[in-house]
Amino acid sequence: MKIAYILFHDFRFVKWSLKDFIKRKYHFSKGYLEIIRELGHEAVLYTLHQEVASPVITNYFRIFPVEFRFPPLLEFGNEFSLRAINDILSREFDVVHIHNYYLWSVPLLVLKYVKKESSPIMAQFHGDVDPFSNFKLKAFSNIYRMINLFLVSFEFERKKLNKLANIPQERIRIFPNVGIDTSFFRPYKKSPEPVILYVGRFPRKERGPLQKKPTFVVKLFKIIKKLIPEVKLFMVGEGDGLSRVKKHIKRQRLEGSVRFFGYVPRDMLPKIYSWAWLTIIPAKFPELTYLWDGSLKESLACMTPVLVFGDKVDWKYYGLMVPQNNMLKAAEEVVKAIKHLERLFDLKRARQVIMKVCSWDLVGRALVKMYEDIKNRYDLGGE
Fold first, then answer.
1. 372-379 CB contacts, 8 Å cutoff, 24+ apart
2. Largest CB tally within 10 Å, which of 106, 301, 317, 357?
3. Domain membership flag for residue 190
4. Which residues neighbour 205 within 8 Å (Cβ) at sequence distance 6 or greater?
5. ∠188-191-193 over CA atoms, to 5°?
């Protein structure tokens, strides 16, 4: 099969150069591309980049310049490239796989592609990129219903698609948002003293429910530090907001308890995850799940439990959810987790589940099976 894998945003939100994306740094989209090709299928990654003035074409990538942005002021997700859309339309693909279907250019792409009557479309959720996701689902519901299959990681998202866009339940599947290499991410030595870990981007502006907010980690850590003085915080990642977070830590007089790693080579990550006692995913989850977020899966594969934010307290064998709007209550739950780590979490089971559900090999094979299914139904005249 020939698959078009489409990620229609640029990389200004992380300040990655074109070389960073293609050669230097890991990105989940390249993981998808690699596993699809390893399974014997032809896959091409379409994306955009803010630095290019003309298309950059390789065997596996087709990278286009951003022609205009709408609506204004968004960090990403509002980029358009009509040249990229026309290029997709000009080529013969068996399946088009769009990642993320909340991007503003997706309805235009879907409308043009469906009118061509070429091949089926799969749309995969990768987070709310702006405050208008509900509006887009309602306003473009007729276009979204042209999509053959949706992949989501939250039951909440399944219900929203059904309610706001009237997507039939049978065309929505619960699925990991990314896969991970479970042979690479494996447990190593644990720190003798408690370490809390954050791995991710440091955005210039911390917006959106599923965008990571490292300042939440610092606020929570300050309270935890008063209850467990020996606890340390490790922060891994880069971004425009890094200097702001560092200044905040300095104002809070926490410098001696916080270690910044910046961007680290990928081969360092398993030992860092394993060293930590708890990995914080500072985003607001609609429900606690191991199907969402790459760093969450990586942490569990290294047998380190995870913490996410939400509207309530929720405990699972692999981690916990704490209330976003009550930092004191959240800190109390984290302290409980730190003090009773082995009793409260079954981390061997967590790693086994990640291996069975979220390994790249299993994700890739499941994707290819779904590609085949929707292509067969499409060829037979079904949805």
1. 372/1, 374/95, 374/120, 374/122, 374/148, 374/149, 375/1, 375/94, 375/95, 375/119, 375/120, 377/120, 377/148, 378/119, 378/120, 378/148
2. 301
3. no
4. 75, 241
5. 165
Residue ranges making up the domain that contains 136 = 2-179+359-379
144 with 163: CB under 8 angstroms?
Answer: no
Q: Are residues 119 and 143 in the same domain?
A: yes
CATH assignment at residue 304: 3.40.50.2000
Residue 364 forms part of a structural domain: yes
* 108 and 170 part of one domain: yes
pLDDT at 382: 62
Domain total of the chain: 2
Tokens of 53: 């003035």
Half-sphere exposure of 49 (CA within 13 A, CB side): 21
Q: 112 and 100, same structural domain?
A: yes
Positions in the chain short of pLDDT 50: none
Q: Are 324 and 251 in a shared domain?
A: yes
Beta strands in the chain (DSSP E): 2-7, 42-49, 56-57, 61-65, 68-69, 79-80, 95-99, 121-124, 149-152, 172-174, 195-199, 232-236, 258-262, 278-284, 306-310, 314-316, 319-323
pLDDT of residue 383: 62
Same-domain check for residues 225 and 115: no
Handedness of CA 183, 278, 268, 284 (dihedral sign): positive
Neighbours of 180 (CB within 10 A): 24
Task: Calculate the average pLDDT of the chain.
Answer: 94
- Residue-level pLDDT at 145: 96
Question: DSSP letter at 40?
Answer: T
Identify whether residues 80 and 144 lie together within a single domain: yes
